[in-house]
Amino acid sequence: MRGDLLFEISTPHLRSHQIFRLIEQTDVSALKQICNSGIVFRALMAQDILFLQDAKCHEVYFITSGTCAYMRKASPHCEERESRTEGIGEKAWLSWVALWSLWTHVGTGEAEQTGEVLVVQPDTVFQSIGRCGDLRDIFEEYSLAFYQRLVSAGPPSPWPDDLHVPFTDYGEVVMAMGSKEQKLIGTMALERLEASKWPWQGISLQKLDALQKEVFSGRCVLIENAEGAAERVVPITAMRLERDNGDVLVVMAKQQEGCEILPEGKLPGAKQKAGEEPVQAVRRILREQLRPFSGAKIFKSDREDVVETSHKFRIRTKYIRVIFHAALPSGCNPTLTKLHGCRHHVEVLPVKSKPRGSLPLYEESFLLMEGNNRLFCAWVSPETVDFFRKPDGQKQVRQWTEHLSLDDERHLT
Known about the structure:
By secondary structure, this protein is of the alpha+beta class. The protein has eleven helices and 20 strands.
């Protein structure tokens, strides 16, 4: 009776992370074992210490009520140079990294008001899932992928701490796992779609079959999100390259070998390959797309997630976009293939919100090669980069591309 009660009380909180949803779907008895042996609820009063900086970490915490303060002070054992304090609210995980590594706290957690935390014992979690072969394989792959991202974290990305480890969202870690485990996780997410497979309820049978083929072929990663819905995950890495005057490099248009020129108006970027980390992806972008600018210095990275509904499958798709900021060294002036002799001059659309001089002149644009693919690039102002993301800006980019005529090599010098 006590075990059943603990299970009913704990599972709503545990389901806030997809890894526990996965355990429940695969082997509910394993989740019951975790709740019975590896979960305790701990009451906190204001100013109670949850954990101390530089202490060994043996627990994972989930705030069920109240708020906590996370304080990180400069320490010879970490890379923090300045003290900082961050407020943590309900439904937040603390020290999640301790589930996947031997961790030492790099900050102090203190209750700001009366509240409660759910405490998870990592050893019990792994003992409980060890009896199920599929779960054990998934956890081993997940642990390895998480740990690899943990040890590679650092500038230009933030250092890991008790709250965050860069690039370790559930979908990102699944992307780094083996194909067998990705298919298992994708199959479970597909089962969630079965309940809404009829056309008047959601995704059609035809689209469900097509999505299943993509999952099994490895062309698509499908997961169950924190709300329990199926979600496609697409990780993208981009580079925001700036020169001395603040202008930013954009790809105005792209042409694959033997195909028509298509409008872009975006930063140089690429989808991450299976098992590839964002830092590895940005190095590939420099090597394959931006060879003339290989001397660029990366100084920071930002995270930007975009959630849209897939036009093809009509399901939620999450684009995990990591943007690396880089600057060209002073005086860097690589030899570039300029665009000349375009047959038309673009007439800009009368858009009031358009930044002055937003569309680059053809004679100031240049060509970069990515294998046999052509990238038509230009330097534009930061305001123009933002403008190109809006509908009016996209219209301008399309018009610029339509007037770009390069029928032969005479237009390139």
